[in-house]
Structures are given as C-alpha cells and as structure tokens.
Amino acid sequence: FGKLPAGTVDTLVKPESKATLTKILTYHVVAGKLNAADLTDGKKLTTVEGEVLTVKASGGKVTLTDAKGGTSTVTIADVNQSNGVIHVIDTVLMPKA
C-alpha cells in the first residue's frame, strides 16, 4: 500500500470507505490453493471480488496484470498457510470499478 498516492490509505480506512477497501482486498484473493507452479503464463485467475487477474510467467518471474492494466510482480512465492497459499506482490492491484 506504500506505492499508492498520498492520502489513499487514510481515505480507505475511513468507515465510509469500507465497501471500497473490501473490494480492493478481495481483488487480491483467489479461491483454492495455487502454488507458484500453478501460475502459468496466460492463466486467468478469477478473484473473490469477481474480476480477473492475468498471469505472465517468463524467465522465472511471475507478474499479475489487473483489470486496469496495472502490473504487480510476485516477490515471494509459496508462503503456505493453513487456509491457502500467499504470494507476496510488490504493488496493490486495482479492480476496474
């Protein structure tokens, strides 16, 4: 969230912005348990929020493209948790609306 424009996080944590914050956060979640090996080039991932992320995998690097055309690179893959797998990314992904 550090890469967002100044004041964005302060606005998102206000009670009146709860729906927007929820939309952004659920745009970062995909149902199921996907390891890095599952993130193949061209794969489309439907998020819990309902929109799609597109995977680009090349040269050992995995990049996700959001609905607005923004990209985020996976910096740490396969952080296994009891309820799924976390892949740390370097940029906040944004849904269309």
By DSSP, the count of extended strands is 5
Largest sheet: 5 strands, antiparallel
Which of globular, elongated, flat, extended, rod-shaped describes the shape?
globular
In round numbers, the mean pLDDT is 91
- Low-confidence runs: none
- How many domains? The number is 1
Order of strands, main sheet, comes to 1-2-3-4-5
Run of helices and strands: HHEEEEE
Give the class from helix and strand content and strand pairing.
Answer: alpha+beta
CATH homologous superfamily annotation: FAS1 domain
> Could you tell me the strand content as a percent range?
25-35%
CATH topology, which one?
A: FAS1 domain
- The end-to-end distance, rounded to whole angstroms, is 18 Å
Kindly provide the radius of gyration, computed on alpha-carbon positions and rounded to a whole number of angstroms: 14 Å
> Which CATH class is shown?
Mainly Beta
The name of the CATH architecture is: Roll
Helix content: 10-25%
Number of helices: 2
